[in-house]
Amino acid sequence: RALVAAEAEGDERAVEAALRPRTLAEVVGQERVREQLALVLEAARGRGRAPDHVLLSGPPGLGKTTLAMIIAAEMQSPLRLTSGPAITHAGDLAAILSGMNDGDVLFVDEIHRMSRPAEEMLYMAMEDFRVDVVIGKGPGATAIPLEIPPFTLVGATTRAGLLPGPLRDRFGFTAHLEFYEPAELELIVRRSAGLLDVHLTDEGAGEIASRSRGTPRIANRLLRRVRDYAQVRADGVVTLDIAHRALDLYEVDQSGLDRLDRAVLDALCRRFGGGPVGVSTLAVAVGEERETVEEVAEPFLVRSGFLARTPRGRVATPAAWQHLGLTPPPDGGS
Ligand code: ADP
Fold it and tell me: Which residues are ATP-binding (predicted)?
C-alpha cells in the first residue's frame, strides 16, 4: 500500500496524501458543503456534462485539495493540479488549458495569486471555453482563438475576498470551509490512527483534537508527532498523558496555539500595548510575511477570541492578555 511505502520512506507529504478521504462520504464534518457539492455533482452526472466551476475558500489545511480530488474522482475525470504562483505568464495557462480533455477537472490552488494576464485569460476560458493566444509582439502581434473542451475549474483560495469580482462571479458554486469542531477533529484523528496503525485511547484522541487549531492537517500532523513520542518514550500507546507530554514538547499549548500564534499575540501585547496595530507592522515584528500572519495565524486567533480586527488595526482581547499571563493596561489595551 502507498501508505506503508510512504511511512517507510518518512515522506510526510505522501503520508498526508494517503490520509485524504477519497469520497464525499468519507469526508468528516462540513455537512452543508458536502450536501451542496453532492447535489452539484449528481446533477452534472445526470446531464452528462462537466459540473459548474467550483470555488473553495478557507484557511490552509481544511480540505480544499481533498475536495478537488474528490470532485474529479466522483466525476471519474482526470484531475490536473497547478497553483496561482506557478502560472506567471498567460502562456503557462494557455499551455495547460490546451492540453485538457472533455470533462477534465483543473485544480488551481492559491488562485488569488495568479498573474493579471493569466487571470483575464482564465475568465474567458471559464465562460466561453476559448482563449486567445497572442503570437508575436507589437503591431505584428496576432491573436489566435483556441477552443478548449468543456472542463471544470476548481479554484482554492485562503480568502475569497482576495479574488477580483469578475473571477469570483464566474464560479457557479462557492463553498467556504470553516474550522472544524473538536468532536469532528477527534473523528479525523481516530480515522487516521486506524490507517497508520496507531493505538490511541479516546482521551488521547480528544487531547490531540483539542490542540489542532480546528484544522485536519494539523490534527494529522500532531497525531504523527505524538505517535513518535509514544513509540520512543513509552510503549507506543497514545494515552492522555502521552499526548499531553508530547504536545507540550512540541510547544502546542492547551488552546492549540503554536509558536507563530503566540509570537503574534506576544508582539501585539508586549510591543504594541495591545494595539491597534496594522497587520504589516505585526508581521515585521514577528519576522514573518504579512500573508502568513493574515492567512495562517490570524483567522484562528480571531475565531478563538484572542484577537480582533478593527478599522484601526489589530487589537488584543482580554483573553489574549490572560492567555499570555499578562495584565492588560488600565485602558483595556485599545
Ligand atoms: P487544503 O487544500 O485546504 O490546504 P487539504 O485538502 O490538503 O487542505 O487537507 C489537509 C489534510 O487534512 C489532508 O491530509 C486530509 O487528509 C485532511 N483532511 C482535510 N479535510 C478533511 C476532512 N473533512 N475529513 C478528513 N480529513 C480531512
Answer: 19-20, 61, 64-66, 127-129, 170, 180, 217
